[in-house]
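Newbie here. three chains, one complex. Structure please?
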Amino acid sequence: MKGGYRRSLIARALVAPEELGLLSMLEWDLLVRQGRRANLLAKLAVLLDDQRRLDQVPAAARRHLLAALCIAERQQLAVRWEVECIRLAFSDVPVPVILLKGAAYVMAGLPVSRGRMFADVDVLVPKAKLARAESALTIHGWRGEDMDAYDQHYYRHWMHELPPMRHVRRDTSIDVHHTILPETARIKVNTPALFDGARPLPGWTEVEVLQPIDMLLHSAAHLFHEGELENGLRDLFDLDGLLRDFGREPGFWEHLAPRAQLLGLSRPLFYALRYTSLTLGTPVPAAALQASAEAGRPSGLVLMVMDACYARALQPMHNSCDRFGTWSARLALYIRSHWLRMPLHLLSYHLLRKAFKPAKQLDESGAAVGVPAVKPRGPHAETPDA
Amino acid sequence: MKVSDIPRSELRDLLGRGDLLLQTTPFVTRIRSDVRKLAGEIALMYGDFPVCSPDTFADFHIEVAREAGLRRWINPLARFSFDGRRSFVPLPSAQAFPMLEWGLNWCVAAHAHQYLVIHAAVVERGGRAAILPAPPGSGKSTLCAGLVNRGWRLLSDELALYDLATGLIHGMARPVNLKNASIGVIKAFAPGAIFTEAVPNTAKGTVALMRPPAASVLHVAEPAQPAWVILPKYDAGAEACLTRQEKAQTFMLVAEQSFNYDIHGARGFRAVGDLLDQCESYRFSYSNLVDAVRVFDGLAEEASR
Amino acid sequence: MSLWAVREEALGCLRCWEDEASAVFYSVRSGDTHLVDSLALEVHDLLMARPMTESELLDALSDVIEPGRDAEAAQELRGYLLRLQEFGLLRESIA
């Protein structure tokens, strides 16, 4: 990767925890900042606890790791309960509901779910059942969030989800998707194949999760199409965790590239394997890298640009991790993501509109911030610290 | 070294560089600001607080920064940041010091999960603490300011830090936040108390901060044993009246008024239960501070017998 | 006939103080905390001694039921027990 990827302190800590003993107090201070902004502090706490290194962390810093862990554990409980409530909502509706991302990791008991922060629950339902899903949720107390006609249209027609729904009593949020990438995207995902591969959670009938290989591919597609990379590093570590976990199953690596091709996700798979192995040292077999490159590698020039962009953008959003070019790297990715999502002529109209939308509310929640997709971002709303 | 030992110009420089590390026991806060008059207000309100060396680990990095742009001269604005993340809403820079205070309260409430953080005032006498939880507008800050000017130790006017392991309450002995009519009431009640200038037109009305008593700051590292949970209510014309309140009801109130009760789950439930096991629980209505102090002193006296 | 019992996970999650008419309850599954009244306390104490059917409960609670309103009481009790089940305090099982 030209220009290289400079690992932030938090990334270094997660990849090589044995080196933490060498940190000065000021470095710990910085690590806590980065970890909080990247929503990775709890993950570090879990890792150090597993390795019995938590006692070696200076007390002043350790308190913050434990505080983050406290939040993560509570969120796990909240996610489990939320899924239970969702199951109830769909119990008399014959709609297969597939859990995605974080909620799926928790319910499937995956190691990657430990210490992870969540904001809301994402589910996938067949497009034909979208209306039934929406009414089932409405009956059980969810309401669409307040938004104007433009945004409603953006969500329903151009994106791949119902507008987010909020539960009136629990104040939790659910995103209902009918495919994993927008219909207007240039990449056409083979959604029926995703549904075919899904499997129910042990002991449940109404709620399913994607099969492991598809879970991995979805995570890759999500990260490498998203415009808002606030959780980019966290999502990269998700990929690392999933690859390490699933990679132990016989046949996983061999099936990866072919399955990606079937689903239409060869490009995101290429990026996923490339960036996890290069930046986090994820043990990806050479044969798998080779196979993914054959199917999904972009032209030399595009790759150079992408490398530069992601090297800078897959960092915690803290000024210690910014370097020359970060601001434009994030912008480039932001624009890129929308380019992938919708035809060009609609893009500039949408971006302009986002820039001038008034900020809806103060960011109160601190540690784990759900990023509602229509919150104004990009260069006009927030400039990173110089 | 204390804040009052630092010459004003040096204090301003430290603030500008973001190298002011204030010991806000039990935390350390790193503060950065380019708002000129903030140095003066910090010197006035935090004069007795120790300052740490710049290589100390800070629990919170906070910043109050002026907004750039043409508006700078017409209507100067400032914005609060925590760990580099800016809040969405800037405020007039005249409100910089209240913003700093509210911002720091928010940092503690949102992150200090080694404690159960209760939205309450805490004062202590004779080794026993009275916790005064209350929704805004109940007059708890006024009552708190009154009591600490009559011999009670200030732990906090906003944030009671309940240690789940030890069952003790910690405070930060930071400036007391008063608004509107209370400012005049306390100035009359305690003519020696030191205040910032009153800042009008904030979200909470006109706001002023009162410097914490030096003795309270001196003893800030000492936690206190909770003995009473008292729900105050200012009621013009009412006789000072203390009535017992069911602990189960008080439990719900304390839980509701705790910023992170929910995060602690079962542990939080047990902790608040244990707290109420230890404490007497009352409702308290009052209309003037002299009577209020008398009642509280009476409680302290009875407990020491 | 169904039997009502206190859920195992709810043990230790109901807390009350002497001579008070209310209690607080923590639900392990939802993380919610509820304020419950003296009837819930009574029901809880009865069922801690042994699981009971609804009619056994009605008998045991007879001194708090208004005379001549047995039918209504039975219906109200059922609704009440279902709410306590929703909170996570009780469980109904077919004997």
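Moderator note: The domain at 9-356 of chain A is CATH 3.30.460.40 (Beta Polymerase; domain 2). Residues 238 and 358 of chain A are 33 Å apart (CA to CA). Thread marked as resolved.
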